[in-house]
Amino acid sequence: MSVEVRERHGTREGGLEIRRLTLRNLGAIEEIERASYPTPWSRSMFAGELTKPASISLGAFDGGVLVGYVIVSRYVDAWHVMNVAVHPRERGRGIGTTLLERLFEATASDVRRGYTLEVRVSNEGAIRLYERLGFRGRGVRRGYYTDNREDALIMWKDPIRPREPA
């Protein structure tokens, strides 16, 4: 199954341009990642996801500057949200919501796959965001995070059903 994301010029939403990430974006991705997480992904992890055919990597650009991203991988029964980050100085603008909504639009034709992710149990802001977008807690991975052995909440969102014509 092929998932199409407009790549020409991306899409503009709320002053942001949403488009696919490329290897040219690695430096900016790493900057946001280091500012966002205590145990950031390595450059090679990002490069692997950016070039993997079963992944979708979207970036939010403001004035040509990357301010946030979402990376998902396609598995048999789910789109696994691998990484979402918004630069700390850009948070509170709805960028994470916009990225995830754009992901849902891009994958809406894939009615067999839902969405899953793990989030730190202490990350209440992210959990609220995911719940607003239709994710629900489905379990806990004990000691999931290597930096402090914090548990991860496993969240799931059912596949998006196509809208019926009016």
Can you characterise this structure?
The protein is 25% helix and 33% strand. It is α+β, with helices and mostly antiparallel strands. The protein is built from four helices and eight strands. Residues 1-9 have low confidence and may be disordered. The protein has a single domain (11-157), classed as Gcn5-related N-acetyltransferase (GNAT) (Aminopeptidase, 3-Layer(aba) Sandwich). Strands 1-2-3-4-5-6-8-7 form an eight-stranded mixed β-sheet, sandwiched between helices. It has helices at residues 26-36, 43-51, 95-107, 124-132; strands spanning 11-13, 16-20, 55-62, 65-74, 78-86, 114-120, 136-141, 152-157.
Strand content: 25-35%
Shape: globular
> Helix tally?
4
**Shape-level CATH architecture:** 3-Layer(aba) Sandwich
**CATH class annotation:** Alpha Beta
User: Mean pLDDT, nearest integer?
Assistant: 90
**DSSP E strands, number:** 8
* Class derived from helix and strand content: alpha+beta
Main beta-sheet annotation: 8 strands, mixed
Supply database-style keywords:
single chain; 8 strands; 8-stranded mixed β-sheet; Aminopeptidase; 4 helices; disordered N terminus; 25% helix; alpha+beta; 166 residues
At a glance:
Helices cover 25% and strands 33% of the residues. It is of the alpha+beta class and 166 residues long. The longest helix is centred in the middle third of the chain and has 13 residues, at 95-107.
Task: Draw up the topology in text.
Layout: E1 11-13, E2 16-20, H1 26-36, H2 43-51, E3 55-62, E4 65-74, E5 78-86, H3 95-107, E6 114-120, H4 124-132, E7 136-141, E8 152-157
